[in-house]
Amino acid sequence: MSRIDLRDRGVLVTGATGAVGAATARLLVERGARVVLMSRPSERLEAIEDELAPEGAVAVAAKADDRAAVIEAVDEGAGLVGGLVGVVAAAGLVRPSTIAEQSEEDVRAVVDTNLYGTLWTFQASLPHVDRTGGHLLAIASIAGLAPVGLAGIYPATKAAIAEVVSQLRIELMHRETSVGAVYLGMVSSGMSDDVKAHEQAGPALTRTLGGPLTRALTAEDAAEQIVRALEHRSRAVVTPWWQIPVAAPQLAVHGLVEQGLRLSALAGQLPRGPVRRSRR
Length: 280
Fold this sequence. Notes:
Layout: E1 10-14, H1 19-30, E2 34-39, H2 43-52, E3 58-61, H3 67-81, E4 86-89, H4 104-132, E5 135-141, H5 154-171, E6 178-184, H6 190-197, H7 201-208, H8 219-231, E7 236-239, H9 244-262
Parallel strand pairs: 1-2, 1-4, 2-3, 4-5, 5-6, 6-7
Helix pairs in contact: 1-8, 3-4, 4-5, 6-7
């Protein structure tokens, strides 16, 4: 597939008030993209819009778990920037805990933000991206491919995001529109700050991090990988590089299954017309 030229093209970034989302939005603006900044209503969203608006960015507000609000916000943002060639679903939340001890409130917040936030963003933006033959990119995590202590339901939601991406790659096999995921390790961000503040996870993380193979990525390092993945329509990117062996087996299986399905009778039943969005 052809490389995406982001200059003067619309790109949606969700989780735009987080460290990774904001760094990605800034880099996209530097590359000449017209960026739609999406997050829940907040002063932080207004601040980043004020920062990037002179370069052509616009902000739309929606809670990640509200499908109707996400659809309305994406449609509005796409209209403001003249369509979407790319989407970076970067909204994310972690609540450190054990599965046994995690509260219902925290479980629902993490599932709503990570899983439903990504799913509703993709459903809302697919018709727009399909018109341009662009690329959808989910921000997944190494934690979704291997167990992580004291992460609660977070790894399960990131594993689910990886499966959503795999399913979409099958559903879009007859189209120019493509989809992929970036599997991030620990990133210096508000999420990592939440982990460090946890009475058990924090001290353990402090003792673990710091070596060359465990040092956290900066948000800017993550943004470089994300924007590159968007430009090159990457199926899967793992960063930092030393975590590739952890991800490789599962990603290899996904690739083999995808190729097998392309040769199956099921491939002939998949849609070839314009992507349509359910109204319900």
